[in-house]
Every structure is written in C-alpha cells, then in structure tokens.
Amino acid sequence: RWRRAxxxxxxxxxxxxxxxxxxxxxxxxxxxxxxxxxxxxxxxNQRSDHLRGGQRLAGHIALLGRRLPALILLINPNFLxxxxxxxxxxxxxxxxxxxxxxxxxxxxxxxxxxxKTHWPRIGGPLLRPLPEDAFSxxxxxxxxxxxxxxxxxxxxxxxxxxxxxLVSGLxxxxxxxxxxxxxxxxxxxxxxxxxxxxxxxxxxxxxxxxAGGLVQQPGFCDWNFQQFLPNRSPLPGSPVSLQxxxxxxxxxxxxxxxVFEKLLHRHMRNASLNxxxxxxxxxxxxxxxxxxxxxxxxxxxxxFGRTPRIDRAEELYIFRxxxxxxxxxMMILERIVYEWVTGENxxxxxxxxxxxxxxxxx
Length: 362
Known about the structure:
By secondary structure, the chain is an alpha+beta fold. The longest helix has 19 residues, at 324-342. Strands 6, 7, 10, 11, 12 and 15 form a six-stranded antiparallel sheet that branches. Strands 1-4-5 form a three-stranded antiparallel sheet, with no helix packed on it. A two-stranded antiparallel ribbon has the order 2-3. It has eleven helices and 15 strands. It has helices at 2-6, 15-18, 27-32, 91-98, 138-141, 169-177, 193-202, 257-268, 273-277, 280-289, 324-342; strands at residues 37-41, 55-59, 71-75, 79-84, 87-88, 146-156, 181-187, 207-210, 213-216, 224-225, 240-243, 246-252, 299-304, 307-312, 316-318. 25% of the residues lie in helices and 21% in strands. Residues 11-90 have low confidence and may be disordered. The termini are far apart.
C-alpha cells in the first residue's frame, strides 16, 4: 500500500498528522510483517497538560511473534496509538511495558513497575510521636473518660477466587495506577466484620466518571480486612492497641464517631487518593502511565430505593501496611485521643455536622 501511494516504498509519516514515528524499521520488514497502524484523535479532555510536548517511549514490542525490529514510539499529545496488527492496545499498556520492572513476571504484587513518584505518607513530614509519658501525664489521666470502642481498619478488594486472572476491584485500581492503595477507616460495630458486608452491599469506590457518565466497575463486592504490620509499639498507657487485623481504642466519652472519622481523615488527607490524583505530582504520575487523572477519581453510588446519592470515596489512601505507614497511623490515633482530651487542636463544636443521608457527604 505504501509503495502504491508513494512510489519509492518508503513510509512518509507526518508527525503533526499522525503523531507516530517508526525508527530502525526497514520498509521490507514492515511490509513483510503487514504492520498496520491506526491512530485516533483524542478529546480535548484527554489532551491534558501532562502530555504536552509529547512523550518518548522506548522499548522492544513483540508483535504476535513477528520478528520485527524494535520500535521507538514518539507519541504526539493530540493522538493515541490505538491498534497494532489490528489488535487493540491501550496507550497505558504501551507505556507500562516501557517502565522498569521491580517485581518478577507473575508476581502477585499490585506495584510491579518503577515509577519515579515520591508517594506522600499519611500525616505528612511534620508528624511526630507524642512524648513517651504522654498518657501518664496528669493533664491526660485526670480528664480521660473512656467511651465507645472503635476499630480502625485496613481493607482491600479484588481477589476473585472463581477467576484468579481477572484484575478488578481496588487491587485492579492499584495495578492500573502502580500505587499502593487501601481503604483506611474506622468502625464502632461490635463485630467489625459486619462493616465489610455493608461495603460489599454499597460497592464502595466502584464508580468512576468518564466522558460517557458514571461507570461502575467490577470487583468491589469482596472487601476484606488486611493486616497492619507496624514496627513500633503503642506508648505506655496508650488507649490504642493492635489486636489481630485491627487497631482498637476507646474514644473519649465526648468524642463522637463522625468527628473522630473527620479528624482521622484530616490527619491523613495528604495521602488521599482522590486528592493526590489532581495535584501536580499526581498528574505527572498519571502522565507517565498515559492515563487521565480525572477518570481515576473514585465514587460510590449509594442507593436509597430509586434515589441514588453519589459521593466521593474519600477513605482511599496511598498506604503501605508494612512498617512506617502503620507506625504513622498508630501515632495519628494516639494524637487524636490525646489532643481531644487535653484540648489541643480541638475543632469548633459545630464542625463536621452530619447533614444526614439526604445530602452529599463532605
């Protein structure tokens, strides 16, 4: 086809028009391999700032066993490579294949490629542990009145026992973003496992917003508790402890559940998934993977009969259960209780009112 169109048999690809260059690819090999390329203009929303100027993706691509030389693709921000050998290949899969591997092929880990992104850690750089004697000081001992038991937990979903090769749920999101993502929250249910049943029923964080509207993705109906693996122990006299898969603590008698949850989120919001995606660092990370950050923000579609309520899934965080992040969560829990009892950094009484189920949560 190239020979008939151009006579000399040499492909003439216009950079601005096609956005794709093929280097080190002899014409005879291309013709023998019957390589076909299809490019499609992306929408203006997809031409986000992080793709401006183009990205150079270098790598060896195996095309259905054909013996073709390496291709170096220079993708113009206005276009996406959509099809090689008439087999659909996403821009993200091409980009991911070019990233250095940090886990062997077949690893069960969600993060298998090296992306040069500095993950935020919950609590931020200024988080420090309380003094060793914090919970034996008179300012705390004389005021603390234990209230309701509360169980901070770590949860994930996406392991399909019937289809183990299916990538779905929060684990699938973590693989797509190449980030360690978990749900970190708390429950006061006497049997915390009942909270998992509610998450499964609501399909928590199953939805994303795309150009076509709200889309519910599969795999968000099998939530399970994961294990915290901290290196440090609670402070002497601390109301916080680790029992099995859950932290346990007794909230101060005048600290309500909703306020406790909001305080917990305030301490960890720097590592919130939804917030991170829309930061400059998050956008650069998504650019590296060739995905649109706005389409990765997670939502939950709560059903009340025929009336839905769409809320952001704000309890998803960049979190590594082993080591420092679990240590940091323990410090945050201890600090919430200590500061509430001693009166340090206490929010206004009207802050974070529960606006009922008839409105969006914030």
